[in-house]
Amino acid sequence: MEIIPEVIDAPEITTGQFVKLTVYNSYDDTVAGNFTIGQTYKIEDVGNTNWTSIGADSNNSGVIFVATGAGSGNGTAANVTFLTFSDSYTEQTLPQYIGNTIVANYSYNPFGGLLTVGAQNRELRVTSGDTSIAISGISGNNMSVILGTEGLIRGSELEIIRGFYNANMILTNNYTRFTGIITNYQITEERDGLEDNFTITLSASSYKTVLENRIAGRKTNKESWQFFSTTDSAMNNVNSIAGVSFDFGADPKTKIQPGYGGGGTPGGGGGGGGGGRPNDRFNEDDR
Amino acid sequence: MAGLQTIVNKCGGLTINRRKVVGLQVTRNEIPRVTVTPTTQPWKMTLDMPSSLRYYDNRDLLEALDTMDRVQPEVISFSDNACINWIFKYQGDLSAGQIAGMRVQSFVGNQLILNSLPVVPASRIIFKPNDLIQIGTNPYPFTSTTTVTRGTGSTVTVTTNRPNIISTSVVNEGITVGNDCEFNMFCPNMPTYKLIPGGYVGSNGTTLNNALIEFSDSFELYEYVATA
To answer: CATH no. for residue B121?
Structure first.
């Protein structure tokens, strides 16, 4: 029988938080051959493009790189702004994994105590959770990074990693704590006498929360229908039934209307609608 | 005039704060558990000023402090004043020439490895705890946390109070120790000063009123870690 060990080992633990923020600059991906040298991209579809020849660490989807060439082939990548920072004491390089394979390495800029990472829930089962990161003591130039995205910061991907240091202050392990999407940002300016401090706070929701709040499907109108297929005319006349109550699933007989049952009259019962087509038993409004 | 250096030279008391940023809990079996944030562990010094400085003798000091305000750093040392140069005096056994001959082999985390060691008996002490060390012309002095003796090897390892925060390579650089080390500090609180009329001073054959300077607070110096 295993027993829970007594808490006697290593009384001190040194940890740092590493933040990876990917801001999408465009809704459309860029096809290989059109990459701008010096621009940062995130590989979306590997295709047959040789990504390592234009700056990527590996040919894997999700790898972020600074383009050193226009590229070739049919692969696609998203135009992104990639920000990596930490509360560590110095610049650190952390790997990006796919499974157990390292596909890229990214350097994290040290912000020290100017970076605050909010509370996060970590459970065995998938749980919803929000968190925030705050960067304080920043200059106006850094604020422009956020403001310059003109709202694109919302929807950006946020990943928070916790790194563990050994007794010699060398980073030895790291684990992902949070992955989610930026849902809001807030810039706070505090003036107190002759002191002026800026703080940027980014709020993020986990992917589970995002999926919970996702609105799926199509609206029953012409525009929504033809967004997916421009020739789909199924909803062209839907406006004509606006405001009409439906009773789907009810007994069809109760909905027989005079004139639609094949010549019967309200008083005579109509004789079962002998001349009518099968569908005529439905009120037109029921369609 | 060097404002902060003058303050250091004339201060009436010095508080040194090198505490880490930690989270402390005590377990149910009453064992402390500490979480440490890996900061740059900057030097923090609080200097108490005597209220005996005379205004007319120190107008240049006041101007230097006002110009510096709370934003500009200044390099200070504890070597140019006989009253305070004992604070960080080197405690080891090596001569200045022997120290200057040593080179940095590597500095990873808080482990500084030195080579090109002097030919001295193995028992000679190179560093004692709290000995100040600085690498080349880089800022950010640190201290040795243990006693380091020469030994018989070609290198010695020094455990430092804080990890290497120098962003450039320090391999093959020399070191300075003790009072030769310099601190790049700024004063985030930069006290204001009050003039208390008292005394007279002669100027160009006339007599002018003088005053004593009273600072509103102690000077809290903070190490300026520009890039880490």
So the answer is: 2.40.30.290
Q: Please tell me the total count of domains within chain B.
A: 2
**Tokens encoding A68:** 């050193």
Among A198, A79, A58, A229, CA closest to A135:
A198
Contact A11 B32 (CB under 8 A): yes
Q: What is the pLDDT of residue A138?
A: 66
Q: Which residue of B has its CA nearest to A14?
A: B36
* B-proximal residues of A, 136-195, CB under 8 Å: 165-166, 168-170
Q: Which helix (H) or strand (E) holds B62?
A: helix B59-68
pLDDT for residue A48: 94
Q: Does B190 lie in the same domain as B77?
A: yes
* pLDDT tens-digit readout, B141-181: 999 999 999 999 999 999 999 999 888 899 999 999 998 89
Distance CA A208, CA A106 (A): 26
pTM, 2 dp = 0.71
The β-bridge relationship of strands B206-215 and B53-54 is antiparallel
Residue type, B69: D
Q: Is B190 helix (H, G, I), strand (E, B) or coil?
A: coil
Domain that includes residue B152, residue range:
96-179
Question: What is the per-residue pLDDT for A287?
Answer: 40
B122 within some domain: yes
CB-based burial of residue B201 (10 Å sphere; 0-12 exposed, 13-18 middle, 19+ buried)? middle
One domain, residues B106 and B148? yes
Least confident piece of the model among A96-110, A254-268, B184-198 = A254-268
* Contact (CB, 8 A) for A115 and A133: yes
> Residue A223 contacts by C-beta under 8 Å, 6 or more apart in sequence?
none
Buried b or exposed e, range B55-69, using 16+ CB within 10 angstroms: beebeebbebbeebe
- Residue A258 is predicted with a pLDDT of 52
Residue B25's DSSP bridge partners are B33
B contacts of A7 (beta carbons < 8 Å)? 27, 29, 31, 33
Of the candidates B226, B25, B36, the residue with the CA atom closest to the CA atom of residue B139:
B226
Residues in CB range of B200: below 8 A, 6 or more apart? B207, B208, B209, B210
Would an 8 Å CB–CB cutoff place B110 in contact with chain A? Answer: yes
Q: Which residues of A138-174 are buried (b: 16+ CB within 10 A; e: fewer)?
A: beeeebebbeebeebbeebbbbbbbbebeeebebeeb
Q: How confident is the model at residue A264 (pLDDT cuts 50, 70, 90)?
A: very low
Residues 13-42 of B with CB under 8 A from A: 21, 27, 29, 31-41
Look up the ipTM and state it: 0.74
Domain shared by B79 and B8, yes or no: yes
Nearest CB neighbour to A12, from listed B34, B110, B164: B34
Identify the residue among B165, B170, B186, B225 best suited for mutation to test binding to A, counting A beta carbons within 10 A and taking the highest. B165
* Averaged pLDDT of chain A: 78
